[in-house]
Automatic annotation (TrEMBL):
Protein's recorded name: NAD(P)-dependent dehydrogenase, short-chain alcohol dehydrogenase family
SUPFAM superfamilies associated with the record: NAD(P)-binding Rossmann-fold domains
Superkingdom of the source species: Bacteria
Gene Ontology molecular-function annotations: oxidoreductase activity
Organism expressing this protein natively: Caballeronia arationis
Upper classification of the organism: Bacteria, Pseudomonadati, Pseudomonadota, Betaproteobacteria, Burkholderiales
Length: 248
């Protein structure tokens, strides 16, 4: 199925590792030019170098998505070097898990700012370009954690906020034929998950409790993101698509 992404320009934040890297690779496979954005520019460049070997047109950029100045400059460089911006994937985020009685203000702010403020700043920066061309796709990476997880008050709140932001933006942007959707992954077998000391227990538990008895793969999420970015999803907006193997 042709997704109609050839020649489009996609920005993927948090693209140096894990889900972001898989999403960037999926766009490149579909013929899109891709800007891989990460606070770790070295990691973004490593992923970009791999994609260039297959002939993809890619750009690696280091940027702090919580900085208005950095985000504005990043989008400007993407437009200058790749010729525009059609798709934004707000994927940057991380966890800093602990019970709330032990959670410091910095632990709250760091997680919420990257996930939620980052989505706000990046979306605001690309919106004029998408509005002018009357075509755009914004895909925000939420999480099954938006339903609430113990020890993840900061992360759960931020990911729930992403869904509210998604629905508000879909109402604002729709008349310009810009769709805004969220993807909520469950437990995905990324390198960050594999580094957990209790990884084997996490994997075993997922296989026992998930209706589809396995961990999700980054490509499972990337495929859904690519669909939402495509011409095929032009009438889907304000929605949340869970990629969780049926586990809610």
């Amino acid at each position: 199925m042709d997704l109609g992404l050839t020649g489009k320009v996609a920005i993927v934040t948090g693209a140096g590792h894990g889900l972001g890297a898989a999403i960037a690779a999926r766009f490149a496979q579909e013929g899109a030019a891709v800007a891989l954005v990460d606070i770790d520019e070295t990691a973004a460049e490593a992923q970009a170098s791999t994609l260039r070997l297959s002939g993809a047109r890619v750009l690696a950029l280091g940027a702090d998505v919580t900085s208005e100045t950095a985000v504005t400059a990043m989008v400007g460089r993407v437009v200058e070097h790749l010729g525009g911006v059609h798709v934004l994937v707000n994927n940057a985020g991380f966890t800093r898990d602990m019970r709330i009685t032990k959670m410091k203000v910095d632990d709250w702010d760091a997680v919420v700012d990257v996930i939620l403020k980052g989505a706000f700043l990046c979306t605001r920066a690309v919106m004029p370009h998408m509005t002018e061309q009357r075509w755009g796709r914004v895909i925000n990476i939420s999480s099954r954690a938006h339903l609430g997880n113990p020890g993840q008050a900061n992360y759960s709140a931020a990911k729930a906020g992403v869904i509210g932001f998604t629905r508000a933006m879909s109402l604002e942007a729709g008349r310009s034929f810009i769709t805004v959707n969220a993807v909520a992954p469950g437990i995905i077998d990324t390198e960050a998950v594999r580094r957990l000391a209790h990884y084997e227990k996490v994997k075993e538990n997922a296989e026992k409790t998930t209706p589809i008895p396995r961990l999700g793969q980054p490509e499972d999420v990337a495929d859904v993101v690519a669909f939402l970015a495509s011409e095929r999803a032009g009438y889907v907006s304000g929605d949340v698509l869970h990629v969780s193997g049926g586990r809610y």
